[in-house]
Design a protein that fits this description.
Layout lengths: L5 H12 L4 E8 L4 E4 L3 E5 L2 E2 L5 H14 L5 E13 L7 E10 L9 E3 H7 L4 E2 L2 H5 L6 H4 L4
Length: 149
């Protein structure tokens, strides 16, 4: 349910605005281009068109995500505050859409963090959502769309 109650909106906005971006640890890799961070935040990867019904692509994407960002590994999360959802009004668990960066342990690369969203597109396991360009003026992550749009 989209947060409409000002109390919950303010609480979550305060939490995420004071923690943008935030670093957490992956506690679960989901099978629908999502993951759980720190046991209490469900993160859906932003700006990806992931509406595939092909079970093989979904399985490959889940495996790919778990290899790049294994359980208990650190992630850098840039949430889109306009996407913050509350699973249950009485629950503190939240759902967000975000750009997710995994810590890169590959010694042959100069990058400290790699974009999971971008790597899934490069691997042809997801495609960039063209609708994101029309949303770019209303999202907190419009800086990430500049090169793409």
């Amino acid at each position: 349910m989209l947060i409409s109650d000002a109390k919950y909106t303010k609480a979550l906005a305060n939490h995420y605005s004071s923690n943008l971006p935030f670093i957490g640890k992956i506690t679960e890799v989901g099978n629908n281009y999502s993951m759980q961070v720190d046991n209490n935040t469900d993160v859906k990867l932003a700006f990806l068109n992931t509406h595939t019904k092909d079970p093989q692509i979904l399985a490959d994407a889940t495996h790919f995500m778990s290899v790049l960002c294994p359980i208990r590994s650190p992630v850098l999360v840039y949430p889109d505050l306009s996407s913050v959802l509350l699973n249950n009004v009485n629950d503190t668990k939240s759902e967000i859409s975000a750009l997710v960066y995994c810590q890169n342990f590959d010694n042959q690369s100069n990058e400290d963090w790699i974009s999971l969203n971008e790597e899934l597109v490069k691997a042809k396991l997801a495609i960039f959502d063209k609708n994101a360009c029309s949303m770019s003026k209303s999202t907190d992550l419009r800086w990430a769309l500049i090169e793409i749009c």
